[in-house]
Amino acid sequence: MHIPRSIRRHALALALIGVLAAGHSLAQNMVLEMPSWQATEPGTSDWWRALIAEFESQNPGVTIEFTHEPFASYNQTMVTRFAGGNPPDILHLPAANFMVYAQEGWLAPLDDRLAETPDVVDSWTPVQSTCEYEGETLCMVVLGYGYVLGWNEAAFEEAGLTGPPTTSEELIEFSRALTVERDGAVERYGFVFPTVAHPGVESTATAFIFEYDPDGHWVDEAGELNRDAIRFAWTQMRRLVEDGSVPLGLDNNAKRQFFVEGRAAMMLEGPWIQGNINAAGPGVQEHLRVAATPFTGTVYGGASNVLAVPADISPERQELAWEFIRLFTSPEWQAAYATVAGQPPARAGVLDDTFLAENVNMQTYVAEANAARDYIPPGLAENYTRFRDLVVEATLAAVVQGQDMDAVMNQLANDISRLR
Amino acid sequence: MPATPRHRRRLSNAARSRLYAFALLAPAVIVVLLVIVYPLVMAAQMSFYDVRVFRVGRGFTGEASFANYQDMFANANFWRSLRVTFAYVFWGTVGSFGIGLFTAVLLNQPFRGRFLARILVMLPWPIPGVVAATIFMWMFNSSYGVINYLLLQLGVISTSINWFTQPGPAFLAVSAATIWKGYPFFTVTLLAGMQSIPRELYEAARVDGASATQQFRFITIPALRPVIGISLVISTLWLFRVFDIIYVMTGGGPTGATETLAIQIYREAFQYFQMSYAAAVGMVTLALSVIATFFYLRVTSKSFY
Predict the structure, then answer these.
(1) Alpha-carbon separation of residue A208 from A217, A236, A263, A298, A377 (angstroms)
(2) What is the pLDDT of residues B112-153, one digit of tens each?
(3) B256 in contact with chain A, both atoms CB, cutoff 8 A
(4) Residues of A contacting chain B (CB within 8 angstroms)
(5) Is A4 part of a structural domain of the chain?
(6) Model pTM?
(7) Which CATH number characterizes residue A68's domain?
(8) How many angstroms separate the CA atoms of A176 and A43, rounded?
(9) How high is the ipTM of this complex?
(10) Does domain B76-300 have CATH number 3.10.50.30?
């Protein structure tokens, strides 16, 4: 079939325009992937989505696909993706899992980029040190936190107590007074902490350890077990269990549920307790308060979650991922982290006095975050997950199962020495 | 052009049949090699190296050694998991087999509503392990679980048991869920086996004056032996690798009381990212499964007929 030359020319020109337009649109329509376990959390997810919307408006043609991954399997999913050569473009990570990614060389160093933003470096939370590995900064801390005490004011008034406890002795005493039995069953417990295998067991025990030894930890620099502090922590926790002031067999989710339903009068939690309080039903919510932890020593805390740039993505995507992190570090978005997400910002000096005066809880979150000491013991950062599980197992054996503390400590010392 | 003489050797019919059979089998063999043998070989190889996170195409670096196996045999947790696994497999098998045999005998009798009874008895089998585990978690809940309620009402206990905070009760709870999930398999296989036993054998026994117990002992059980053998093998292999029920109910706790080798492998590989060590534990689990299979088949393979 004969096609006139003029038509062929036009067809060729159109095809060329089409190819160029497609190429242009590919460059303009870049999709960055950012999975997170916080994508459905009320408050926090609102802040992430607003931040993403702002980033997208500043970078036309670039979209961030913000997807939800369940927390329980989050780390496994991310490790599998990295191992399979398919990392996300923006990595949001629980800080406790950071070390695996650092050791595998999966994260791009941020030092050169941070050198261009000295204002960020100077004003960032002290727990930013969590992001350092072999002399390089590999992530940015999103949330540095300290534990707080959630307490139910109505329950306290009913028990004739005027305010939250300030020492662990008071915590035990108040818990006993706040526990209410009716018809042979406990209607309300004074205090609640997880009593099945869960990281919350370790954090609760560590909070008690920090009261006994404000400068100490589970182990010292040489790896020796801090036996006196551990004995103190386990004894205090065992007293709470033996008094019947704590419900047994609950994990962390059930713990929060007990508190927001008014079935437990007190619990220890990070600043994300605000999400639980906001979600509590009417009749309970208005009575839920936040105070400093009832320990005289230092506050349990550290880095909660971090943002990082994967090393195995294209330089163009790395640049965009960094631009996103830069936006996240800006004073206005750090302030929004408090106003929208209800969490203490990692950047100092971004909250104005008026906002703080009107938000008593935020004052507590900020103060506790500033006073907090890192939950990771010296020399155990690389094996923290396994260390935590050992501590959980030992604490449950000593506190809930009532096993001999010396025997449990000997076993723990042996297990930790194998780790180190 | 003159025709070229053909020198091609002609295959015999038998050889052609064999070739045809191999050709038909080839896709299945290739799939088996890719899906089963390749990962197995990789896991075996990995167990001799020091790999934290396995990456396809990277190969293994460093020197091959028995370090993972040495670590494993020196680790008290491995021996504890091995003990827990044996106890779990033993009680799981005994419980499932006992209930399966009882229900199979029951359903083999003619009675009104047998069809409905068969459906009800089989119900746990298709239920996913995670769902079964969740159901049992509620049933064993220390505050409002039906198990504590019944035990309290019957006067068996005076205070509620905290099933998931103490080693013994936690193991019992996990085993109960496993048995509940596993017994219909025995019911199905044993019932099928019972229905294939010739009626004449029972009629002859009755003529000879054999009681129902004697018929069961000297006809039913011996005739079922091959079925029992293969069912025990399949059930044991299933119990060796049960993960969902245990992980959902206890996560292997408290204090490792329900941490079987399957749970330990998962934790080492995906919580602590010590994949080589996990592979070593996996190899031992595989070896144990193979030994158990040979043992069962040897004991029960004798034919009745």
Answers:
(1) 10, 8, 23, 10, 15
(2) 998 899 999 999 999 999 999 999 999 998 877 899 999 999
(3) yes
(4) 76, 79, 82-85, 100, 103-104, 185, 195-197, 247-249, 383, 385-386, 389, 393, 396-397, 400-401, 418
(5) no
(6) 0.82
(7) 3.40.190.10
(8) 34
(9) 0.78
(10) no
